[in-house]
Amino acid sequence: MAIPADSEKTTDQPPNGGSRELKPMEVDVARIVLIGTGLYAIAAVVLLAMHTSLTRAGHGRWPWVAVSGTVLGLLGLYYVKRRDRAIARDRAAAAAAAGKASDGGSADAA
Questions:
Q1: Cβ–Cβ under 8 Å, residues 47 and 66
Q2: Long-range contacts for 28-35 (Cβ within 8 Å, ≥24 apart)?
Q3: Could you tell me which residues come within 8 angstroms of residue 66 by beta carbon, excluding any fewer than 6 positions away?
Q4: Is 21 exposed, middle or buried (0-12, 13-18, 19+ CB in 10 A)?
Q5: Average pLDDT of 2-7?
Q6: For residues 94 and 87, what is the distance between their CA atoms, to the nearest angstrom?
Q7: Residue 78 and residue 41: Cα distance in Å, rounded?
Q8: Model-level pTM?
Q9: Is residue 110's pLDDT more than 50?
Q10: pLDDT for 10-56, tens place per residue?
Q11: What single-letter DSSP state applies at residue 16?
Q12: Which residue blocks in 1-110 are alpha helix, DSSP H?
């Protein structure tokens, strides 16, 4: 929808149909995985408590689905934490390299 030229409405779009560079959204993935794993763990406890009645009703596998979700969530949490540490290490190395490059450039200019 085009905004008329005489309108006082502003838009966040760049002029002349240009595009802005979009940056990835920062999300705490570890928290999301932890919440999901916790929900699976709660479901596992509840379903394991109801195991006999679930088995009689033909749903004996349900508790093991929740247990599997909990185990896979813990593995995912380990992976995400490892990934976050690696990203932080790479950012620190890039910042140190940029710091050395800027220090080295100013020393040559003097």
A1: yes
A2: 29/80, 29/84, 30/77, 30/80, 30/81, 30/84, 33/73, 33/76, 33/77, 33/80, 34/73, 34/77
A3: 40, 41, 43, 44, 47, 48
A4: exposed
A5: 62
A6: 10
A7: 16
A8: 0.66
A9: no
A10: 666 666 666 677 788 888 999 999 999 999 999 999 999 999 999 99
A11: G
A12: 29-49, 51-56, 62-109
Alpha-carbon distance of 110 to 106, in angstroms, equals 6
Tokens coding 12: 């966040």
Given this model, what pLDDT does residue 103 score? 72
Q: What's the pLDDT tens digit per position in 61-72?
A: 999 999 999 999
Angle at 85 between CA 79 and CA 89, to 5 degrees: 145
Tokens 């916790």, residue? 38
Residue 82 φ/ψ region, left for φ over 0, alpha for ψ in the -120 to 50 degree band, beta for the rest: alpha
Question: How far is the C-alpha of 65 from the C-alpha of 73, rounded, in Å?
Answer: 12
Structure tokens at 20: 């802005």
* Tokens (6 digits) for 75: 């593995």
**What pLDDT score was predicted for residue 7?**
63
**65 and 40 Cβ atoms separated by less than 8 Å:** no
